[in-house]
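Hi X.,

You mentioned you wanted examples for the new student's onboarding notes, showing what a folding record looks like when two proteins sit in one file. Here is a clean example. The first protein comes first, with its sequence line followed by its structure tokens.
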Amino acid sequence: MTDLHPEPPLAAVVQLGHAAVQRVAELSGTDLLHIKGYAIDPTLTEEGRIGTDVDVLVRPAQVRDFLHALVAAGWTRVIGFRAGSSFGHAATLHHTCWGYVDVHRMFPGIGVDPGEAFELLWSGRRTADIGGIACLVPDTVAQTVILVLNAGRTATAGAIAPDVLTSWGRADGAQRAAVEALVRRLGAQLAFAAGTGHLEEFHAQREYALWRVMSEGGTRLEEWRARIVAAPTWRDRLHLILIAPLVNVEHLAVLLGRRPTRREIALEFFRRPVRGVHEQLLAPARHRGATATVPTDAVRGATGPEGIGADLTDADGIGADRTTTTGSAQPDRPGAVPASPQREQRAAEETGSGAGGYRLPVGVGAVDVDGVIYVAPVPEGPIRILTGSAAEIWVAVFTGTPDSVVERVALTFEAELIDIRSAVEGFVSGLLADGLVARR
């Protein structure tokens, strides 16, 4: 009835990954918000959208310590801040059980100080049940802003991203007013304009060219030129000019699936300019004003965000001793909301259908994907799979009293109580002994 499955579906891994990262945050005293993917309110994204990794925004002053806490809990660094993107905003780590996590020290497009921005988002935080654990997420206003800003740096060939059409495009007047107010407080007008198709209104801004390349696509040469122009100081520009010819060793390692040799790094150094010239010659002409737009007043009469390109150094002390890559396919989103013992238990109590005699222990995550239960201690692991009668017992445990579990399972499988009582009670005892279930 149970199994330590070597390859649980991505939907289960990512949701339990959120739970594991939240638990590391709690144990290390770190303030963080889960963003994107399963952390987003379902009403703000198009149907069928799923998360493929865990994204968290960490209080900037706590980033270094949190990275150390993740490494101590079994995560390995894949790509650092400096090598991760043009904005140097996130580091990527990998866990053999929980998959990938992107640790954000800031969010691209937000112009105010990262610490101030985090505090603004943190002040409106709420909880979302992800993988059976109460995870902290921004409120729906902030989630809308994040979705639009993220879309602004994703090339969509002139089309408006589905997330924007759903979250911002369908927002009513009051919701839009709240979003616009937060955009202004975050200094995120330019990036918000890029996400909603109004980037041309910021043509005179220093960061315009960078967001144009991000939102419409461009060559490596165009991106680097835009990054240099967007840099806020001459020191930042000089730094970018000096590192532009260098090989992004961490990115090359991801492509190769291993750490590159010195010879491979040297070859890549000479190949880069050749590819850049070839790419530039083949690049199609891009014309201004050809993108679709979503009407908004949030992008008018504002100054662009500051600080893009600054502070591109990695957090100290996080080594890249091993690079791990995976090739998991993206599954369909589960048809039902992920199972949560807390949610089932609350529903049972509200309807009077059970006293909730059992609870999910602290540090245990659980999720239902297509009727299969995936449960694990977090962040330790491993993931245990409950199928068939085991899954039914699991649901019965959290929706009824201890005395009613056998009756509920018997009713489901049309079995005699005397025939299944010993097996069901023994299975529940095993869950208790393994620490996956606890009595209230």
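Then the second protein repeats the pattern, sequence line and then tokens:
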Amino acid sequence: MKVRRLSYALGAEVLGVDITGPLPPTLVEEILGLWHEHQVLLFRGAALTPQQQIQFTENFGEPDRHEGNPNFRMAGYPELIEITNKLSANGKASPTKDVGRAWHSDLEHTLQPLKGSVLWCGALPDVGGDTMFANMYMAFETLSPGLQKTLASLEAEHDVIASFSPKYAPPDPEHVAALRRTAPPVAHPVVRVHPATGRKSLFLSERVSGFVGWTYEESRPLLQFLSEHFTQPELVYRHQWQLHDMVMWDNRCVNHQALGNYDRSQVRYMRRTSIIGEPLGRPMNSVLAVA
């Protein structure tokens, strides 16, 4: 096994490993160590079947069955969701065609955000359709000590409604209503300690409504500053997909964003498995202060 770093901020390509079959426990431990070190791992040229992708994911935790997004699931495989702009057989648009346009971490709007995600590329446009990843360890560590102290005392409201910013795509009222029934607003700590590495990271994204006990007007300037901070080029890796790439990232210390920079008449098709994470935060009906 060889390892090649992908950027200054985060990411590494793992070479010389066949991930299409069972992995010995010693190799799983090596990959896990690399994952904790680099946060994003890339495996190239892996022509995986759906079952092989699920089998690989099971090495690192229990796959989520995506109960909160049943219409995203691949037929016959509840552990897999399809993220694509490909039209269905009856010509209907895919519900995932604009998924992931805002910076986020997966299922952050729930009481059990994902531990990690494993995304496999099955079809690509000629150019574009990239995915960007931000190192949220470095985002925290490069702030001033004073701001670090302030943020460590705060919680933020994560709301599924906020994940449909008009900046990226118009909301689907039916989908929003379905998610609202299963995912009411939650409060998470702004600074999160990784259970495996012990490092502190920002746990914020463009899906956050505001800070607990602060008004919307008070929250927005600081959220805007932090968003601009963690997305600066020095803290980001931009992945240009190749066919049959598989990328796994640590959702607890990485934010990501899917770019819509491609010809929509061409198909972009991704399959994702998700690893169930640790319980976090607390439920709230409304945690923002009233102005």
